Amino acid sequence: MSNKNLFLKSGFIRAPIQNGVGRFVPQLQRIVLKFCKTYGASQGLREFIEQDLVDFAKENPSVVVYLKPRRHRGPVIVAEYLNGDRVWMSVHNKTHSEITKWIEVLRTQQGDISSLRLRKYQYTDYPSVQGPWTPFTFKDPELNTAQLPDPHFGANDRLPITATEKLRLLFEKQKLSDVKTAE
Protein backbone atom coordinates (compact mmCIF):
# COMPACT_ATOMS: atom_id res chain seq x y z
CA MET A 1 0.00 0.00 0.00
CA SER A 2 1.40 3.38 -0.93
CA ASN A 3 1.42 6.27 1.49
CA LYS A 4 -1.08 8.26 -0.62
CA ASN A 5 -3.82 6.18 1.03
CA LEU A 6 -2.87 7.63 4.40
CA PHE A 7 -4.38 10.98 3.42
CA LEU A 8 -7.61 9.65 1.84
CA LYS A 9 -10.70 9.29 3.94
CA SER A 10 -11.80 5.69 4.24
CA GLY A 11 -15.30 4.37 3.80
CA PHE A 12 -17.63 2.09 1.89
CA ILE A 13 -19.21 2.46 -1.52
CA ARG A 14 -22.86 1.84 -0.87
CA ALA A 15 -26.22 3.11 -1.96
CA PRO A 16 -27.00 5.88 0.49
CA ILE A 17 -30.25 5.73 2.44
CA GLN A 18 -31.13 2.37 0.86
CA ASN A 19 -31.40 4.23 -2.44
CA GLY A 20 -33.57 2.37 -4.92
CA VAL A 21 -35.36 0.35 -2.23
CA GLY A 22 -38.81 1.88 -2.11
CA ARG A 23 -37.99 5.08 -3.94
CA PHE A 24 -35.07 6.80 -5.62
CA VAL A 25 -33.41 9.73 -3.87
CA PRO A 26 -31.27 11.90 -6.19
CA GLN A 27 -27.93 12.53 -4.54
CA LEU A 28 -27.08 15.89 -6.12
CA GLN A 29 -28.26 18.54 -3.71
CA ARG A 30 -26.87 21.80 -5.08
CA ILE A 31 -24.96 22.94 -8.15
CA VAL A 32 -23.20 26.30 -8.40
CA LEU A 33 -22.24 27.68 -11.81
CA LYS A 34 -19.54 30.34 -11.49
CA PHE A 35 -18.78 32.28 -14.65
CA CYS A 36 -17.67 35.63 -16.06
CA LYS A 37 -20.06 37.62 -18.25
CA THR A 38 -17.27 38.81 -20.59
CA TYR A 39 -14.38 36.33 -20.27
CA GLY A 40 -13.96 34.22 -23.42
CA ALA A 41 -13.31 30.95 -21.58
CA SER A 42 -16.81 31.16 -20.05
CA GLN A 43 -18.57 31.12 -23.45
CA GLY A 44 -19.62 27.45 -23.24
CA LEU A 45 -21.02 27.86 -19.73
CA ARG A 46 -22.90 31.03 -20.74
CA GLU A 47 -24.44 29.14 -23.69
CA PHE A 48 -25.52 26.34 -21.34
CA ILE A 49 -27.12 28.89 -19.01
CA GLU A 50 -28.96 30.62 -21.86
CA GLN A 51 -30.17 27.45 -23.64
CA ASP A 52 -30.44 24.53 -21.22
CA LEU A 53 -30.48 25.74 -17.63
CA VAL A 54 -34.25 26.27 -17.35
CA ASP A 55 -34.92 22.78 -18.77
CA PHE A 56 -32.34 21.28 -16.39
CA ALA A 57 -34.00 22.98 -13.41
CA LYS A 58 -37.47 21.76 -14.50
CA GLU A 59 -36.28 18.16 -14.97
CA ASN A 60 -34.44 18.13 -11.61
CA PRO A 61 -36.63 19.90 -9.04
CA SER A 62 -34.61 18.44 -6.14
CA VAL A 63 -31.43 20.21 -7.28
CA VAL A 64 -30.86 23.81 -6.23
CA VAL A 65 -29.08 25.75 -8.99
CA TYR A 66 -27.08 28.87 -8.16
CA LEU A 67 -25.58 31.23 -10.72
CA LYS A 68 -22.61 33.23 -9.51
CA PRO A 69 -21.21 35.77 -11.99
CA ARG A 70 -17.60 36.72 -11.18
CA ARG A 71 -15.49 39.24 -13.03
CA HIS A 72 -12.31 38.11 -14.80
CA ARG A 73 -12.33 34.55 -13.40
CA GLY A 74 -12.42 31.17 -15.09
CA PRO A 75 -15.68 29.21 -15.23
CA VAL A 76 -16.21 26.65 -12.48
CA ILE A 77 -18.95 24.16 -11.59
CA VAL A 78 -19.30 23.14 -7.93
CA ALA A 79 -21.60 20.20 -7.12
CA GLU A 80 -22.64 19.40 -3.54
CA TYR A 81 -24.12 16.02 -2.60
CA LEU A 82 -26.29 14.69 0.23
CA ASN A 83 -23.36 12.83 1.80
CA GLY A 84 -21.44 16.11 2.20
CA ASP A 85 -19.05 15.68 -0.72
CA ARG A 86 -18.22 18.67 -2.90
CA VAL A 87 -16.93 18.22 -6.44
CA TRP A 88 -15.18 21.24 -7.96
CA MET A 89 -14.69 21.21 -11.72
CA SER A 90 -13.04 23.79 -13.94
CA VAL A 91 -14.78 24.13 -17.31
CA HIS A 92 -12.24 26.53 -18.80
CA ASN A 93 -12.72 26.72 -22.62
CA LYS A 94 -15.22 23.81 -22.65
CA THR A 95 -17.96 23.81 -25.29
CA HIS A 96 -21.67 23.86 -24.62
CA SER A 97 -22.05 20.13 -25.38
CA GLU A 98 -19.10 19.18 -23.15
CA ILE A 99 -20.55 21.17 -20.27
CA THR A 100 -23.95 19.51 -20.79
CA LYS A 101 -22.29 16.08 -20.57
CA TRP A 102 -20.28 17.00 -17.47
CA ILE A 103 -23.35 18.35 -15.69
CA GLU A 104 -25.15 15.08 -16.49
CA VAL A 105 -22.21 13.16 -14.98
CA LEU A 106 -22.33 15.31 -11.85
CA ARG A 107 -26.12 14.85 -11.62
CA THR A 108 -25.97 11.05 -11.77
CA GLN A 109 -23.06 10.28 -9.45
CA GLN A 110 -23.22 10.12 -5.67
CA GLY A 111 -20.23 12.25 -4.79
CA ASP A 112 -16.48 12.12 -5.10
CA ILE A 113 -15.76 8.42 -4.64
CA SER A 114 -12.40 8.62 -6.41
CA SER A 115 -10.86 10.10 -3.25
CA LEU A 116 -12.18 7.30 -1.04
CA ARG A 117 -10.02 4.51 0.33
CA LEU A 118 -12.11 1.37 0.44
CA ARG A 119 -12.09 -0.52 3.72
CA LYS A 120 -13.97 -3.49 2.27
CA TYR A 121 -15.18 -4.45 -1.17
CA GLN A 122 -18.63 -5.31 0.16
CA TYR A 123 -20.88 -3.69 2.70
CA THR A 124 -24.20 -4.55 4.31
CA ASP A 125 -26.36 -2.95 6.95
CA TYR A 126 -26.89 -6.40 8.52
CA PRO A 127 -23.49 -8.13 8.63
CA SER A 128 -23.28 -11.89 9.00
CA VAL A 129 -20.92 -13.66 11.38
CA GLN A 130 -20.61 -16.52 8.91
CA GLY A 131 -19.21 -14.45 6.03
CA PRO A 132 -20.52 -13.84 2.53
CA TRP A 133 -22.65 -16.43 0.75
CA THR A 134 -21.10 -18.42 -2.10
CA PRO A 135 -22.58 -21.21 -4.26
CA PHE A 136 -20.55 -23.68 -2.17
CA THR A 137 -21.83 -22.49 1.23
CA PHE A 138 -24.27 -25.35 1.92
CA LYS A 139 -22.57 -28.14 -0.07
CA ASP A 140 -21.64 -31.45 1.55
CA PRO A 141 -17.94 -31.42 2.60
CA GLU A 142 -17.52 -35.03 1.39
CA LEU A 143 -17.93 -33.65 -2.13
CA ASN A 144 -14.39 -32.17 -1.84
CA THR A 145 -12.70 -35.61 -1.89
CA ALA A 146 -15.19 -37.62 -3.96
CA GLN A 147 -14.33 -39.08 -7.36
CA LEU A 148 -16.98 -37.79 -9.74
CA PRO A 149 -19.29 -38.92 -11.29
CA ASP A 150 -20.51 -40.60 -8.13
CA PRO A 151 -24.11 -41.89 -7.87
CA HIS A 152 -24.07 -40.98 -4.18
CA PHE A 153 -23.80 -37.24 -4.99
CA GLY A 154 -25.52 -37.08 -8.32
CA ALA A 155 -28.92 -38.23 -9.45
CA ASN A 156 -27.62 -39.50 -12.78
CA ASP A 157 -29.10 -42.97 -12.36
CA ARG A 158 -32.43 -41.58 -11.17
CA LEU A 159 -32.97 -39.11 -14.00
CA PRO A 160 -35.85 -39.85 -16.37
CA ILE A 161 -34.71 -40.90 -19.81
CA THR A 162 -34.42 -38.20 -22.41
CA ALA A 163 -36.56 -37.91 -25.52
CA THR A 164 -33.63 -39.06 -27.65
CA GLU A 165 -33.17 -42.17 -25.54
CA LYS A 166 -36.91 -42.87 -25.72
CA LEU A 167 -36.86 -42.62 -29.54
CA ARG A 168 -33.81 -44.88 -29.73
CA LEU A 169 -35.55 -47.52 -27.57
CA LEU A 170 -38.75 -47.31 -29.66
CA PHE A 171 -36.70 -47.71 -32.85
CA GLU A 172 -34.94 -50.81 -31.46
CA LYS A 173 -38.31 -52.35 -30.42
CA GLN A 174 -39.69 -51.66 -33.88
CA LYS A 175 -36.64 -53.24 -35.46
CA LEU A 176 -37.05 -56.35 -33.27
CA SER A 177 -40.74 -56.63 -34.09
CA ASP A 178 -39.96 -56.30 -37.83
CA VAL A 179 -37.40 -59.12 -37.55
CA LYS A 180 -39.92 -61.36 -35.70
CA THR A 181 -42.66 -60.75 -38.29
CA ALA A 182 -40.29 -61.45 -41.17
CA GLU A 183 -39.50 -64.91 -39.76
Automatic annotation (TrEMBL):
UniProt domain Ribosomal protein/NADH dehydrogenase: residue ranges: 37-110
Keywords for the protein's UniProt record, in alphabetical order: Mitochondrion, Ribonucleoprotein, Ribosomal protein
Main location: mitochondrion
Localization, UniProt: Mitochondrion
InterPro entries in the cross-refs: Ribosomal_mL43, Ribosomal_mL43/mS25/NADH_DH, Thioredoxin-like_sf
Gene3D superfamilies in UniProt: Glutaredoxin (3.40.30.10)
SUPFAM superfamilies registered for this protein in UniProt: Thioredoxin-like
Keyword Ribosomal protein among UniProt keywords: yes
SMART domains for the chain: L51_S25_CI-B8 (SM00916)
One Pfam family matching this protein: L51_S25_CI-B8
Family the UniProt entry places it in: Belongs to the mitochondrion-specific ribosomal protein mL43 family.
Protein's recorded name: Large ribosomal subunit protein mL43
Species, as recorded: Chilo suppressalis
